[in-house]
Amino acid sequence: MATVSLPTEIQPRVPQGAFKNEPFTDFKAPENFRKMHEALELVRGQLGREYRLIIGGHRVTTEGKIRSLDPSRPSQVVGVHQKAGAEHAEQAMQAALRAFEFWSRTLVSERTSLLLAAAEIIRKRKFEFCAWLTYEVGKNWAEADADVGETIDFLEFYAREALRLAEAKTPIQLAGEKNELIYIPLGVGAVIPPWNFPFAIMAGMTAAAIVTGNTVVLKPSSDSPTIAAKFVEVLEEAGMPGGVVNFCPGSGAAFGNAIVEHPKTRFIVFTGSKPVGLEIHERAAKAQPGQIWIKRTILEMGGKDSIVVCADAEVDTAVEGVVASAFGFSGQKCSACSRAIVEASIYDAFVEKLRERVEKLTVGDPVANHNLGPVVNKAALDSILGYIETGKKEGRLVAGGNAIETEAGGYFLEPTVFADIAPDAVIAQEEIFGPVLAVIKVENFKEGLKVANNSEYGLTGAVYTSDRERLDLARQEFHVGNLYLNRKCTGAMVGAHPFGGFNMSGTDSKAGGPDYLLLFTQAKSVAEKL
Ligand code: NAD
Question: What is the 47 CA–ligand 1 centroid distance (Å)?
Fold first, then answer.
């Protein structure tokens, strides 16, 4: 495929040195503290604005609306969005197909320049994006900062990866032939992200798709469309031509199904729950009239992640790791530890230290930067409270267990710990996606590993031990996509911890890793007789 330089508005940029992760912001520094307050104030003044669909670069208004609400004070509308229906799926697809004609042929350097320019804009307005995450999904400052930092990382990392892929060499040159292997884009993709990393995962999946020359229809989660709208605005500011990313908030059932089933959809990149991932997989598998390819699905789904704590571990360190993994962002991470599996000889001491540590956590408005903010919406609150009731029947309540009522009606929950949970209990098997931790007693490490692997999921896991043999055994036997040894099981860093799970946790696509962009391409081998 010939590549051309198009008269786009994208200013040429090259990566500045080797990839480095974006540093975390120290909010204790007075200047950063002040900047975050100013950003919260700035964004507060912009809440409730209306955003339009963006199809082929044009703003489109629909009759139906989606209102994204602040989970700390649900009467506060964060953004009013249009609700795309099946007819908009068709329009967005046509716009994306038209854009594919030129975008797939642009120089890779133009596409990487777009990502680098977007990273630059976001870096400059980091506090502002943190504030949007605080209002739209209830992230405290550090969680919001990690989400924004990861967004920048994905843009910077995939820009470098795309350049590397463009330089890829065929392993063997036959005598008398010129042999090439060229990675070409697939076509139009549907990008379907979750709300819990509404910036990083949404932007990362979109960036990977477009930097490799595809065009996309982006359907954000209805809980977090505003941060996605902000990202598309950033891409436009960075010079993205119309139609490369078509922004279409809409319901999963109507719009989501329409775009997944569309015969011209070439691939679907999804992150979300197991049931929805499996449904998309099934729908995508059915060839539609006129469809001439097998749709590719890249599906990253839920988790039921365990930390195994051995008797020889440094208990205080293990407690810190479990608490950070279980209750960071109120347990609303696919990587969150929801099962602590502890050796019998330290079990009682561990549970007691855990209780003391959990009781020190503060819950409240993320604007005021508490340890735990709200859960994302009323349905999540009700579902988690249901699991807490189940937990009360299945084990011993050690900490928490209640919703916290506030004047503004936010969806707050106490960090909750249940001890003496059986490995096959409901709360030890089902993804709760909230601040609920099950503690399970085991006789020894081998049993601990068995319990950890006793799950349909296989996303993250950790082991705390000072024993080299146990670490090696965990390396071999602990069946998860992201294994951590003597550290928490959350907080994957782009490049260092390529992220994706086994079994029902997904297709193990390893976002932020060296193989990720390949998933958005097809390789064409060309042999020319010399
Ligand atoms: P979800 O499955 O409810 O929704 C994810 C996305 O799918 C949303 O945009 C939603 O609107 C859309 N959707 C819903 N039904 C659809 C349909 N029929 N067709 C097309 N799209 C549809 O998940 P969520 O509540 O947004 O996110 C939480 C889940 O995501 C948890 O299970 C969590 O473990 C998982 N998650 C996984 C990873 C990972 O990397 N494995 C990362 C983050 C979150």
Answer: 25
Q: Is 359 a catalytic residue?
A: no
> What is the 3 CA–ligand 1 centroid distance (Å)?
35
Question: Tokens standing for 446?
Answer: 């081998």
Is there a single domain that holds both residue 414 and residue 318? Answer: yes
Give the tens place of pLDDT for each residue, 367-405. Answer: 999 999 999 999 999 999 999 999 999 999 999 999 999
Q: What is the CATH number of the domain that holds 394?
A: 3.40.309.10
Q: Which domain holds residue 416?
A: 305-494
416-to-101, 113, 320 alpha-carbon distances in Å: 53, 46, 15
Query: 375 C-alpha to center of ligand 1: Å?
Result: 15
User: Do 120 and 258 belong together in one domain?
Assistant: yes
Question: How many percent of the chain have pLDDT more than 90?
Answer: 98
Longest dimension (CA), the chain: 78
Facing residues of 248 across strands? Answer: none
- Both 296 and 319 in a single domain? no
User: Which protein residue has the closest C-alpha to ligand 1 atom 32?
Assistant: 273
In a domain, 31, yes or no: no
Kindly state whether residues 202 and 326 are assigned to the same domain.
no
Q: How far is CA 416 from the centre of its chain?
A: 24
Choose, from 300, 394, 414, 431, the residue flagged as catalytic.
Answer: 300
Residue 96 corresponds to which tokens in the numbers above? Answer: 């994306």
Q: SS3 for 121? A: helix
Q: What is the pairing mode between strands 305-309 and 337-343?
A: parallel
Q: Which tokens is 145 given?
A: 């900062």
Tell the burial category of 121 from Cβ atoms under 10 Å away from its Cβ (0-12, 13-18, 19+). middle
Q: How far is the centre of ligand 1, averaged over its atoms, from the C-alpha of 195 (Å)?
A: 7
Nearest atom in ligand 1 to 253's CA: 18
Whether residues 435 and 415 fall in one domain: yes
412-413 vs 403-404, strand pairing mode:
antiparallel
User: What is this structure's pTM?
Assistant: 0.97
Which atom of ligand 1 sits closest to the CA of residue 501?
41
Distance, in Å, from the CA atom of 511 to the CA atom of 499, rounded to the nearest integer, reads: 5
Rounded Cα–Cα distance for residues 320 and 406 (Å):
28
pLDDT of residue 32: 98
Active-site option among 130, 248, 310, 334 = 334
The CATH number of the domain holding residue 275 is: 3.40.605.10
CB atoms closer than 10 angstroms to residue 373: 28
- Atom nearest to 221 CA in ligand 1: 9
Task: Check if the beta carbon of residue 424 is closer than 8 Å to that of residue 418.
Answer: no
If asked whether residues 311 and 457 sit together in one domain, one would say: yes
Residues 358 and 239 in one domain: no
User: Could you give the number of structural domains in the chain?
Assistant: 2
Q: Kindly tell me if the per-residue pLDDT of 8 is higher than 90.
A: no
In this structure, the answer to whether residues 174 and 244 fall within a common structural domain is: yes
Can 334 be counted among the known catalytic residues? Answer: yes
223 in Cβ contact with 251 (< 8 Å) = no
Which residue, by CA, sits nearest to atom 8 of ligand 1? Answer: 221
